[in-house]
C-alpha cells in the first residue's frame, strides 16, 4: 500500500467536552480507547470547558484511573482558563497533566486549523 495514502496517516482529533454529565464523560473516554485501539499513535486532545472541567478536577471526577492511563498513553487534556475563572476553580485543583489554555474556543479553532478532526461527543 502507498504510504502517502490517507488511510496510512496518523489520526488526529480534538474533542470538546463541556457537559457535567458523568455518563457522557465515560462515553468520551470509551471512544478515545476505541480510537487508540484502531491507531495507537493517534493524536487526541480533549478540551474541557464549562462544567466539563469537572472531569479533570481531582475532587470531582470518578474517572481518575482512566484519565491517568490515557494521559500516560499520550492523550492531552486541556482546560479553559475562562471557565476556571468563571467558576472560581484554582489551577491546582486539576490533575498535573492538564494544560491550561486561554479559551476553549480558541484552542478548538487552532486544533482544527492544524488539521485535527473536531468531535463533540454527547
Describe the structure.
The structure is a single chain. The protein has about 120 residues and is of the alpha/beta class. The protein has a single domain (about 10-120), classed as 3-Layer(aba) Sandwich (Hypothetical Protein Ychn, Chain: A), CATH 3.40.1260.10. It contains four helices and five strands. It has a five-stranded parallel sheet with strand order 4-3-2-1-5, sandwiched between helices. Strand 3, helix 3 and strand 4 (about 100) form a beta-alpha-beta unit. The longest helix is centred in the N-terminal third of the chain and has 17 residues, at about 20-40.
Question: Topology of this protein?
Answer:
Blueprint: E1 12-17, H1 22-38, E2 43-48, H2 64-72, E3 76-80, H3 81-86, E4 98-101, H4 104-113, E5 117-120
Parallel strand pairs: 1-2, 1-5, 2-3, 3-4
Summarize the structure.
The protein is of the alpha/beta class and about 120 residues long. Helices cover about 35% and strands about 20% of the residues. InterPro entries: DsrEFH-like (IPR027396), Sulphur_relay_DsrE/F-like (IPR003787).
Order of helices and strands: EHEHEHEHE
Outline: globular
Number of distinct beta strands: 5
Residues in helices, as a percent range: 25-40%
- In CATH's first tier, which class applies? Alpha Beta
**Radius of gyration over alpha carbons?**
14 Å
Number of self-contained structural domains: 1
In terms of quaternary structure, the protein is: single chain
Mean pLDDT across all amino acids: 93
CATH-level-2 architecture: 3-Layer(aba) Sandwich
CA(first)-CA(last) distance: 36 Å
Relevant CATH superfamily: DsrEFH-like
- What share of residues are in beta strands? 15-25%
Pfam families: DsrE
Organism: Ferrimicrobium acidiphilum DSM 19497
Protein name: DsrE/DsrF-like family protein
Amino acid at each position: 500500500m502507498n504510504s502517502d495514502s490517507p488511510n496510512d496517516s496518523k489520526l488526529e482529533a480534538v474533542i470538546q467536552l463541556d457537559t457535567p454529565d458523568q455518563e457522557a464523560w465515560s462515553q468520551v473516554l470509551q471512544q478515545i480507547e476505541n480510537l487508540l485501539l484502531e491507531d495507537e499513535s493517534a493524536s487526541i486532545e480533549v478540551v474541557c470547558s464549562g462544567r466539563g472541567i469537572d472531569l479533570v478536577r481531582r475532587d470531582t471526577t470518578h474517572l481518575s484511573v482512566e484519565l491517568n492511563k490515557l494521559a500516560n498513553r499520550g492523550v492531552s487534556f486541556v482546560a479553559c482558563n475562562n471557565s476556571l475563572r468563571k467558576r472560581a476553580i484554582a489551577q491546582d485543583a486539576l490533575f498535573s497533566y492538564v494544560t491550561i489554555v486561554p479559551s476553549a474556543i480558541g484552542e478548538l479553532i487552532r486544533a482544527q486549523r492544524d488539521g485535527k478532526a473536531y468531535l463533540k461527543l454527547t
